[in-house]
């Protein structure tokens, strides 16, 4: 059974939405079992967001956060420690890589690791040229159209 949605008919009548269709296709390919580490996405204000990840046992040096175009990548790599023989290992300390697709103009503001929670603050900053602007309706006279001088008709 095929679970993939065919976006081909939409390509015929839309221009510039290629990235959106590719994003929708890529979400179908995500593995259902990829749930570690757990995370929350919080909208803190109109254009501000926060990602909180539970990364107990990881230090600042074990974590790497990078933003490449519209993708935020969080990697955790912990060196193996030989503290002794584990009889039970319930605290997950395995390496991970978590990817977040970001909308256009979303930038990482800062990141902090406190009490085993990695907090990444994001802000959407729309450039001034792309913001809606109000056009004032004035009572100034329109410029008179230019006339092209040509041969004058003789009556």
UniProtKB/TrEMBL annotation:
Q: Which organism is it from?
A: Rhizobium calliandrae
Protein name per Swiss-Prot or TrEMBL: Hsp20 family protein
Q: Which InterPro entries match?
A: A-crystallin/Hsp20_dom, ACD_IbpA/B, HSP20-like_chaperone
CDD domains attached here?
Answer: ACD_IbpA-B_like
Q: Which Gene3D superfamilies match?
A: 2.60.40.790
Q: Superkingdom, according to UniProt?
A: Bacteria
Residues in SHSP domain copies: 30-140
Which keywords are on file for this protein? Answer: Stress response
The family note in this entry says:
Belongs to the small heat shock protein (HSP20) family.
